[in-house]
Fold this protein.
Amino acid sequence: MLIQIELDNAEQALTRLRTIERTIRDLFPAVPADAATATEAVPAGGPYRPVLTYLSLVRELIENPATAHTHDFGNRVTHLPPFISQEREDLQVISFYSWLRARTLGRPYYNVLLEIANA
């Protein structure tokens, strides 16, 4: 999906993004709270809710690339849910986040990736 964005294939990227979102929502649907069994409500995406949040930000970028340089968007990217572990061991998660962060900063992806990985 990100490659399609980099290649300026917005429609292809949106198609891919929708497929990913649909798959996550189908596998992890929202579950309402149930007082009888004392279970808490679970939002759509379950443990992958931060992924859906990430994808919504990517969707905004696809639909309006200029939004990447707004203060509000940059703030939302900076304060994404903490799906990057404290150990910073998942390089894929770090690289996906770094790509989005690089877009907001207007800096090369690789430089941002190195900064985040070494933090």
